[in-house]
Amino acid sequence: MIAVHAEAVELSNSMTAHQAFNVIARSTLRHFSSNAEAVRELDGEAIHQMRVGLRRMRAAISLFGAILPASSTGKVKTELRWLSGELAPAREIDVFVKQRIQPLRNASEPKRGIRAIEKRFFARHRQAFLRARDALATPRYRKLLIDVLEWLELRQPNADGASATPIEKFAGEAMHRRIRKARKRGRRLADLSAVERHKLRIKIKKIRYAVDFFRNLYPAKAQAGLERLSNQLKKIQDALGALNDFIAHREIAVDAALHAPRGDRRARAFGLLLGQEKEASKTLLKAASKAMRGLRPRSVALD
User: Fold this and answer.
1) 3-class secondary-structure state, position 10
2) Angstrom distance (rounded) from CA 264 to CA 269
């Protein structure tokens, strides 16, 4: 089995918001569930794609939150969050090993220390992958799939009529509002805490997913502008994601160093994982701030 990537979402301007959400939600369900077999085979890319599919569904729920029933939707969100949490350690340690551990083979540190680091983290890597696999063998995962399908089939349009809003109107307003809020939040990016930057990154990621969801509603003449917007969002997301990785990787490395036996060569070698981040962080913040200034809410107009 190989990892399955997201399919293109095909919407029509004749759809209501209710109908469009059903199309999007089913697409995201196919995305994450189609990776299950490859996850069971401990495929790292499949774990990543399953997480992406889950995030896309959660982003869709957030985008369409105003037209979704609160009680049943809340239960679905809880289960999607649970599965994401079971997969997260595998993805985090996979990125850490590839970005921070494997390059140590070319370092000048004692080879015994490098081998000790590799042994320690490859063991953690396997444990995290097994946890992801085991989550898919639980009754809770099987029930999640059934509950999501039932929720999609039985969910009724809201009585207030918002569900009947033409998707063209709904999409334009939703994206404009979210871009405006994200741009306002990111004006003083350097002053934000790590937690605040992480929250902003999630907002940016949701807008990128929205661009993908609604892309084929736009006429051909608007596609170039939409692509520029997507590229701007990706620059912000990548920069903030790298900053977030710095923090996560530092925590992993510090924990490992603190638990290394006294005098163990690993402790010195772990120091390699902590350096050279200050200057890199400044560069990333600068890149994210520049891309943030380039966001324009009017760029998502459908007319």
Assistant:
1) coil
2) 9
Please give the DSSP secondary-structure letter assigned to residue 35.
T
Q: Which domains does the chain have, with CATH numbers?
A: 14-109+124-165 (1.20.120), 166-294 (no CATH)
Helix (H) or strand (E) holding 88: helix 70-96
CA–CA separation, 38 and 233 (whole Å): 30
| CA-CA-CA-CA torsion sign (259, 260, 262, 268) | negative
Nearest to 118 by CA among 140, 143, 93, 142: 93
Its pTM stands at 0.84
Q: Which two tokens stand for residue 166?
A: 């033409």
Give CA–CA dist 179/172, Å, rounded: 11
Count of other CB atoms within 10 angstroms of residue 71 = 6
Taking alpha carbons only, the member of 20, 32, 16 closest to residue 60 is 20
pLDDT tens per residue, range 165-206: 999 999 999 999 999 998 888 888 878 888 888 899 999 999
